[in-house]
Specification:
With 140 residues, this protein is an alpha+beta fold. It has one domain: Aminopeptidase, CATH 3.40.630. The chain contains 4 helices and 7 strands. A 7-stranded mixed beta sheet has the order 1-2-3-4-5-7-6. Strand 2 and strand 3 form a beta hairpin. The termini are far apart.
Length: 140
């Protein structure tokens, strides 16, 4: 398995995100592919040149904001999401961020809580699906 940070998406990343968000979760394609990918770093896991997992992140003040987190459907529940979150956390700490923030789909809250994120506020609808703001703060 290989971890890479890319400055933009490629066809493999786009396909994984398309399959995860547009096909599985019915997110409109124009919302998923918002034209802002070049403003983010793309954290990725690969096996034999095939994408396993990806997410994108960029700076939001002293926090690293992450989103578009996807793991290949047939490989979920194998720890790849946890590995990618650990890599993101290492990067954020290394770069001096105070923490990481995200908008979590309701069904993923438990996963993020296991990674040290806390829900803040109330649920809200994003792309027609309940989400909640979550944050993981680092001790300095």
């Amino acid at each position: 398995m290989e971890f890479k940070i890319l400055t933009d998406t490629n066809d493999e990343i786009k396909k994984l995100r398309y399959d995860t968000f547009v096909v599985e979760r019915n997110v409109p394609e124009e919302l998923e592919f918002d034209g802002k990918d070049n403003e983010f770093l793309h954290f990725t896991l690969w096996e034999d040149e095939n994408i396993i997992a990806c997410l994108r992140a960029n700076e939001n003040g002293d926090l690293l904001h992450m989103g578009r987190f996807a793991v290949k459907k047939e490989l979920r529940k194998n720890g790849y999401g946890k590995i990618l979150m650990e890599k993101l956390t290492e990067y954020a700490k290394e770069k001096g961020y105070a923490g990481i923030e995200l908008s979590a789909v309701e069904t993923a809250v438990g996963f993020y809580e296991k990674q040290g994120f806390l829900p803040i506020g109330d649920y809200y609808l994003e792309t027609g699906v309940p989400h909640i703001y979550m944050k993981k703060e680092f001790t300095r």
